[in-house]
Sequence to fold (1220 residues):
Amino acid sequence: MNFSKLKRVLLGQPLSSHLASHERIPKWKALAVLSSDALSSVAYATEEILIPLAIVGLAALAYSLPVSLAIVALIIIVTISYRQTIDAYPGGSGAYFVVKENLGVRAGLVAGASLMIDYTLTVAVSVAAGVENIASAVPFFQGHKEVLGAAVIVVIMLFNLRGTKESASLFALPTYLFLLSFLILIGAGAWKLLAGEIPPAAPLIHETYPAIPLFLLLRAFSSGCTALTGIEAISDGVSLFQHPAHKNAKTTLVWMSVILVALFLGITTLAHVYGVVPAEQETAVSVLARKVFGDTFLYYALQGSTALILLLAANTAYSDFPRLSSFLAKDRFLPRQLASLGDRLVFSNGILGLSLTAIFLLFVFQGDTHRLIPLYAIGVFLSFTLSQAGMVRHHLRRRGPRWLGSFFFNFLGAFTTLVVLVVVATTKFLAGAWIVILLIPLCVFVFLRIREHYEQVGRELTLSERKPPPRLEAVRHAVIVPISGLHRGVIDALRYALSISHDVRACYVELDPEATERVRGQWRLWAPQVPFIVLPSPYRSVIEPLLEYIDDVEKTTPGEMLTVVIPEFVTAKWWQQMLHNQTAFLIRAALMFRRRRVVTSVRYHLKGDC
Amino acid sequence: MNFSKLKRVLLGQPLSSHLASHERIPKWKALAVLSSDALSSVAYATEEILIPLAIVGLAALAYSLPVSLAIVALIIIVTISYRQTIDAYPGGSGAYFVVKENLGVRAGLVAGASLMIDYTLTVAVSVAAGVENIASAVPFFQGHKEVLGAAVIVVIMLFNLRGTKESASLFALPTYLFLLSFLILIGAGAWKLLAGEIPPAAPLIHETYPAIPLFLLLRAFSSGCTALTGIEAISDGVSLFQHPAHKNAKTTLVWMSVILVALFLGITTLAHVYGVVPAEQETAVSVLARKVFGDTFLYYALQGSTALILLLAANTAYSDFPRLSSFLAKDRFLPRQLASLGDRLVFSNGILGLSLTAIFLLFVFQGDTHRLIPLYAIGVFLSFTLSQAGMVRHHLRRRGPRWLGSFFFNFLGAFTTLVVLVVVATTKFLAGAWIVILLIPLCVFVFLRIREHYEQVGRELTLSERKPPPRLEAVRHAVIVPISGLHRGVIDALRYALSISHDVRACYVELDPEATERVRGQWRLWAPQVPFIVLPSPYRSVIEPLLEYIDDVEKTTPGEMLTVVIPEFVTAKWWQQMLHNQTAFLIRAALMFRRRRVVTSVRYHLKGDC
Fold:
């Protein structure tokens, strides 16, 4: 099969540069496309707050409300802060660029590394949470969460490898379904309470709170901070909006934050008043929904739409990750081939790597959202802090009109997220944050080494200090054709060799003098003009005498290079390949690291009906 | 490092054809070299008989003596039968040749497959038994038998890969040590009984035997038949003996059988009279030796020499296996490269494969001799039967002087071993024999497919139906050099391309029009005589436009072939390699299966201190 056909069948049509160009979309669509990551975290953030509190005792769950209010305050601060970013970069810009431009390359790389780790964790956490929601509704999947999660990732991966044209409308559906079903849940839950259909299990406002270690309270706060993941997506994606893009983006960012706060506060409040206690086998949202809806269609619709938006959130990482990689590769911090998103074959390596890492994480952490979350928040808040700090620097440098207000809000944002970062890093350190704290500098080190290598190669290869020659001279080279007999494949190789040099020698390693005479006889008939050189092999080795002869020729002929033309076979079936070309492989391996030697295979295609 | 140097350090000096030639040795040395496999089985054969009997009860152990006598009868029959083989093939010949010559190729392949499976099992069983003897003396190793076994195999493997010069004298030592220590054991054991120092635990001759299922009795017999493994080695190795080789071989075969019978009967009798019961943690020979010697130096010497001869027996498979492979490869039933034993690099694949399979078997069967034995006997007796049957056919065809006697003994041998084969196959079927019964036809199928493939290739490649051309014509071919910029590596590739064709074109895939102009400017200075072809890439793919251009060139130019010369880099460090040559790799992969396209890499060696 034709190679490009094969590629097309497996991986779909290539994306045209023109098609990929900005299809600008209205606010309501952009909201759906860019907020799935942020909104979907409502599905697990409440539960993450409840778990550390439940360690102290059920009474401590009352803290969930004040902790949530602190997180809401954080959301507001970060939202305002990112509105300043949109103002300063009306074309849209991610943390990597903002930080690189304002705080220097190394800080930019730290932000880049944080984001790459983040995108990977977005896949793992979102899929794990999605699967937990499915398993809450369909208990059959309880024991098989990792396997189901891995299967889901493989499906998302295949969709992305195949490259379906993702229309914004397609994305809008799950997001609005999710929004609708959560609003119904909150509305119905509140109604039942107010109508007195269900007596509240816990009072909304507590007069006294039980004693609780500060560490656990901070840990509950840290866990809840996952509600903020993905909040930066709108400021990265300003270029998606219809004109005036940056105004629309700012408005949409506020909408999103309002929705996020409403859903998050609504769920947390109801969970508390309904007395939801975190359970091993069921998510908090599922427990709450069962209490409100009972085992009705609405319950299953809610679980389904939750799972759907979580998978959509995982899917966003599949476009963010390769895009960030290509930015880093264009700056030479990642292998060059990642820079161009044009070749799906190359692009797909990133998708494959992302998927395998996420599956690995799922299995290591047994598909458990709670175990993955401690790794998640570090990267998010590190990139928040760096990005806001970059904005602070930006304002200090530019001092544009009304810069002081922007400076204040970004400073507040940077300071707050830094405090949260420190809280998260300390309270979650042993639970897994240490992994990310080690990984980030390691990534930066690798980025820098790669750049250093490319720079050195550039210096070594540059022509700029040389003077062009009057004329490019052809090299002179002798050609050696190793043969083990005379057949059609050898004839092809000899004819090819004759076309590339006037100095062609066929080399035959003698293992059996009788066979030599037979081949020599054929040689006189078929290729009398090519010297037939017999190499003795006292140790019965085929490779050694050839290598020695090649060394000899190199010493005695004046050519700058030496070409070895090897007759090879391409067999019809893969297993037959093992029966051929072993000598070719050994010669190739032996000459691989020698300078000025070119090894060329002339392939004979066997028809082989066998 | 130089390739041949590297090879020499890792694998040792190559064996010269002259050195490998037959060093003829006296009978006493040949006995040591050729009988380690057969004699070492005394270390476990008795125990294998006791285990099935012990299932019925301790009283049933009395059957060990009659069962052993049946096996001794079998040894005598097989010995006489193999003496006929030596007479008929005074140059020495293995089962594969004897069977192929007399019963046809397919029967020969069945014998060959049986032997190859056998050699693998010889390694696994001998090492397992050796380790069990070590663990009997040093209980520390009890829980780690597989690991110790694997380590032992790795050491044997390394010795064989390194290719130590194995002198016959070195082999003689463990064999005679083993013989000496077993004779002392039997002598001392008998003396203590006769002197009344130890009262016998069981009477030597029983007046009544307990009832026992025939199946278990036959199973005990089957298990004991492992005593016969390796008995054919002397008839295979006649060429090792000093003149008159075949007479000396016949004498030595009788000696060996006498020693085998003496040791086997002696150990079985003593084990019975001393009341040895098979134990989980200790071999029967070790239990017996402790009863006779106590915890003295003699006990440890016996265990040590037993372990030593068992490892020596395993080692013999390391020369038998590759030799048989080379015979099969010469007949084109295995990949051609196995035919020549001259290149250690090739030879070592066989050694590696043998070792890994044996280690795999050790782990699957938990390093337990008893579990491996059921697999062992099938191959042994199948090759015995076929080999003896081949001799029967031989006598019927030739009818030389006194053929009737030989015919009778070989017929007796073939018939007896066939009966044993059937007994072994049925009594051991579920215990593991089924694996071998499935594997043998599978191997034969693979052998035949490989031969079929080679024959077809031969027909396809033959020149014999063609007439030689008056003169070998050079092919005409255009050369395409894909480039991504202009640097020293590209200059080298262009100069090489100019040397091999007059039709050279450099192709540049345009991703960014500005960069194109920059490169075009450099091009005018450095390589004006080479056409600079810019390929547009609407989808931002690097590979697709190149492949399309190559197709175009192929259609529009008259050349028979088309060469793509790719500038590649060889980096100083392995990890840097990943940062380069991806495009080269993709082009190579895309053109791999196209006919009449040659892909040549011109490598630029980076110095790279980075």
